[in-house]
Structure formats: C-alpha cells, structure tokens
Amino acid sequence: MPTDVINPATGTVFTSVPSLGLEETDAAIERARRAFPAWRAVAPGERARLLRRFAAVVDDHLDELADLEVRNAGHTIGNARWEAGNVRDVLNYYAGAPERLIGKQIPVPGGLDVTFHEPLGVVGIIVPWNFPMPIAGWGFAPALAAGNTVVLKPAELTPLTAIRLGELALEAGLPADVFQVLPGKGSVVGQRFVTHPAVRKVCFTGSTEVGKSIMAGCADQVKRVTLELGGKSANIVFADADLEKAAAAAPSSVFDNAGQDCCARSRLLVQESVYDKFLALLEPAVKSFRVLDPADKSAEMGPLISAAHRDTVASYVSDADVGFIGNAPAGDGWWFPPTVLLARSPDDRHWREEVFGPVLSVLPFRDEEEAVRLANDTEYGLSGSLWTRDLGRALRVSRAVETGALSVNSHSSVRYWTPFGGMKQSGLGRELGPDALHGFTDVKNVFLASGE
Ligand code: TAP
Known about the structure:
There is one protein chain. By secondary structure, this protein is α/β, with parallel strands linked by helices. The chain has two domains: about 5-230 and about 425-450, Aldehyde Dehydrogenase, Chain A, domain 1, CATH 3.40.605.10; about 235-415, Aldehyde Dehydrogenase, Chain A, domain 2, CATH 3.40.309.10. Helices cover about 40% and strands about 20% of the residues. The longest helix is centred in the first third of the chain and has 20 residues, at about 20-40. The protein is globular. It starts with a strand and ends with a strand. The site of 7-thionicotinamide-adenine-dinucleotide phosphate has 26 residues, from helix 7 and helix 8.
C-alpha cells in the first residue's frame, strides 16, 4: 500500500511512495546478506574510491536533494543544503577509513598476535523524520566503509531523500544490494531489522520509548545496537557571560528545524542576578526570528512536520506562563511560532518533557552548584551549552553536566569529525568522529605460533 507524502508547509499531498511488507523486507535483507561477502572482499582502496565517488554524485545532486527536503520535511533551504552537503562530507570523511582500519600487533610469547576489525554483516539503520539525510549518512557511511552491507528504513513521513540517496549510490557504482533503502512502517520494516537473524546490528535514532523496545528486542540475538534518542538539553547562562552574544545565539539553539532537534537547548537556565536583563535581550531576538516559507532563502525556521505533532506541541503551551511569542505565517501548513515559557518550577511539564517543537522554557538559578543540579535533573543527557567568561567555571561545569556533547560560548553539537551520542536515557554508543567504525566492526584476535 503506498504512503502519501505531504508538504508540511502547505498540508498538501504531493506524491506517494510504496510501503514495504514483511516479505519484501525479508527479500531485501536476504539480498543484503548475499551481497556481503563480495563487498567485504573489495580491496580497501577500491572501497574508498567507491565511497568518494558516491560523495561526488551526492554533491552533483545537492540542489535536487535539498529541494526534496524542503518539500518533504519543511526544512529551510539553507538547512537542507547544509544537510545534503553533510551527507557528502560524511561519505568523504569515512572514505578515508577503509585504508586506515588498522589493528594492533600485541607482544606475546611464542608467536605473533594481531587484531582485525571485522565487519558485522548486514546493518539495519532506522531513521526518524527530523533530519532524514544527515542521520541516514551518519549510519550508512561508516557502516559501508567498514565493509558491511546496509538496509535503511526512512521515517514514513520523510522517505524521499533516502530513496534518492539509494539511487545515487547505484549511479556512483556501488554494487547492487550493498545499500538498499526500504520505505515502510516502523512496526513492519524497522521491527524486522530487530528480529531478522541476518541483521547483525541495528542503528536506531528516534524516541526513547521505541529505542527501549528495540534494545530489548535486540537482546534476544545479542544483536549490536546503537541508540540516539531524545534530549532536554540545558543552555546555562552565567552572569559573567557576554550576555548580548548569548541572547543573540539562544533562539537558533532551540528554534532551528522548528525545535525538532534532539540537541535543542530547550531549557534555558539564567543566573538570577541577570535574569531580567537577559530576557529583555532575548525578546527581540525571538520576535525577529524569521519563520517563513522554507523555500525562502532568508527563512530561519519552517513549519512543524505534521498536524498531529503541532497538536502535541500546542498542548505544552496551553496552561503555561507565556513569556513572549515570535511570529509565524497564518493559513495552511503546520505552523507554530517560536514560544518562550517561564517555568514556575522544575516540575513543570514543559520543563521536564521533550516538546520537540519551537518552545523554550526558562528558569533562573542562584549559583554554579544549583545550575549543575538543575541541568542534570533529567533522565536525558544528549547535549547542552554554557556561557561564561570564567575559564575555570567553564571547565568545572563542562565536566559536571551529564551529557554526551557540550559547547562553551557556542551551540555546536554535531560535527562529523567528533563523536556524537547521549548519556543516560539519551542513547547508547557514539556516532561520527574517528572511532565510529569500531561501532560497525567486531575485534578478532589472531595468534600465530612461531613454532619455536
Ligand atoms: P519514533 O516514533 O521513535 O520513530 C523513529 C523511527 O523508528 C521511524 O523510522 C519509525 O518508523 C521507526 N519505528 C517506530 N516504531 C518502531 C518499532 N516498533 N520498531 C522499529 N522501528 C520503529 O520517533 P519519531 O516520532 O520519528 O521522532 C520523534 C522523537 O525521536 C523525538 O521525540 C526525539 O526525541 C527523537 N529523536 C531523537 C534523535 C536523536 S539524534 N537522538 C533524532 C531524532 C528524533 P515510522 O516512520 O513508521 O514511525
């Protein structure tokens, strides 16, 4: 049965894609299993060349991929171009890996001991709707570089760029069945990655709730699993910070991609001595945040992904203390304005739960100890920022905040050169960075007796 694909900026259906059933999923996994021995046997230099070629073909189609994402996910054209470029860059980065997948030679008595990083087999990648291209690339690029074959399930809401990337891989010369994109339901295609014995690893990005069920399902086969889950990250502004800079940067740290970002700094902690001053600086920055047709080059934020999601986001605002609200287009599409809520206490629902929309909750704190305690008072631990001019404080707080990625005097979270992933219930394992291939390989130790 085909699935309708909707443009969230207009609410209209503009195409449909097939939704694969169980039999088609099993057949694709079987093809991936059969393609594995030949792919792992491709010489490292040749695998590197194919991945670089794949990157070049993505680059040739950058505008096309970006336009697809604007229509399918409502991403601003600026973001969508960055996202397609990120797939290219991540492919190029991991194209350097096959020739550098170096084991160890370990001194032992009686012979020679060496380790190999062996590919796992078929890797299943499950992608959410919020960043369809980058999250796909962070999985398939290192998985392929390590010599695995890949089956990838895009989110039902946003399948188009992943399907196109699957076609571009073939155009670049990757052998058939090495990288297959399987559109369909999570409960059918995604779940089969968990239960099918030929799939040796699942990379899941999405909600903490589904991630837990995937982890439990993978336990049955001791299947490898990487989880990138939700977040409720804190942006901590100390009184000694460059307040103008921190206030100017705060809106994009939470409203980028309409807040549908697991790294969104959706909890703003402001030291009480500068609380009023900071909010006065923040208000114009929020009100001038440009929420426009995402195809408009000057747009900083587009619509939410669906009508149902807009209802969920709205439910957090209805009984909260609203600080101030930005602008959004009226009319068709799933628009929601940037919204700043003043938390009454850390028990407020909007302070505790991941809204996954353009909603920022603000709370004052007294001192460093209280800032750290409030920042860590959550089951999540993905990202976060702190703003201060005090180097010692920057170091102390960076070490004390329990998150996988933190930035000081900036809101940087994801750079493909560095590891990305969550602490606590935000995830398990790390993607990106120089060590990502170790998540797609098993170490084999070989001892060769010298016969002495
Ligand atoms: P989910 O419902 O968890 O869906 C994520 C992906 O998993 C989709 O492709 C979905 O397929 C699939 N899926 C759903 N149920 C499944 C099952 N039982 N077995 C296997 N696969 C299944 O999340 P979402 O609604 O797409 O995204 C929103 C949430 O994801 C947010 O709350 C956010 O916390 C989290 N998120 C986290 C991150 C990172 S990087 N940590 C990134 C994006 C999103 P369908 O298309 O059929 O739903």
